[in-house]
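Give me the fold.
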Amino acid sequence: MKLTNNFTLEEMIYSNTAIQKGIPNEPDDNALQNIKELAKEILQPIRDKYNKPIRINSGYRSQALNKSLKGASNSDHLYGAAADICSEDNLKLFNLILSMIKNKEIKCRQLIWEYGTIKPKWVHISINHNKNKYKDNQIVYIKN
């Protein structure tokens, strides 16, 4: 299912781990609505401005998949409200998203620099949803 010009539902729910371990990873209706909003309101505007491919490393995760990946018990991924993304230059991608937030081009729940000291290994971005406490453009750096 095509969600936007550059993102599909299939890439938002794809997981090598789920396939290898036979873990179902199908979103419920609420998670599907969050996935659609994340793609339309956050990921596509980032892609349009970045003007280069963005890869989804991790999008929606079922409870079983999240547990297998040792994800946080309240992870936004569980609700289809987060994506870990990469590009050919994760530092440039992170800085672009940061500037989009500061310029009010997008509004997110969290932007997280995930690991790496010179550049992030990947970038986590999420939207607010009804299962976790509201956050307004929280910026987090995890550099270990």
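Strands lie at 55-58, 82-86, 110-114, 122-126, 138-142.
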